Amino acid sequence: MNEDGFAQTTMNEFLSRLGEASPTPGGGSAASLAGAAAAALLEMVAGVSGRRKGADEGRAQELRQAASRLREALCQRVDDDARAYQAVDEALKLPKEKEKDAQNRRAALQEALLGAAEVPLRVAEEAVEVLRVAKEIMPLRAKPLTSDISCAVRLAHACAMGALDNVDANALSIKDTTVRERLKERQSHLEREVADTADAILAELNSELSAWR
What we know:
Helix content is 78%, strand content 0%. By secondary structure, it is an all-alpha fold. Helix 2 (27-50) runs antiparallel to helix 5 (146-171). The protein is elongated. 38% of the residues are buried.
């Protein structure tokens, strides 16, 4: 990854890098990108809906700004996740032949693993915020954009669950039981909120989208 990060590359360049035989960028970065796309869709929905006659333009603008902030944050997580895993990879390459070196390597690895777990947790938290924005946009939406909200919700759900899978992958090797319990508590809370919020929104949207069948 160059100094500018993946977020500064074109979509084709990023996907090409994602397909390379290298661990970074990986699933966490891909999940972050899905979340950013979800936020961008909601940004569009709020913008278009706010221009309709009789719309609550002020509220629509507030939600558009919230979606914009989340889009930018999740774009940054694309790079954050890759850098966090690079730290793990670098710790694994530290010398371990001597006992002192082995101790230093273990400490560096544990610190890097915690960082690599914290980043996707933040991604999942931001994905939940995207879902909350989607819920708030629902009453304001222009009906032709119903499928766009549905797509945004599904992308945000995929972002959150993919990010939480990455938490699992890193937490498996964390030795500190107190840290593991803290991660587990945050993860369980996020899983519930993601499922509850996404399911509630999709149930309403699906009843509208499937009305023609």
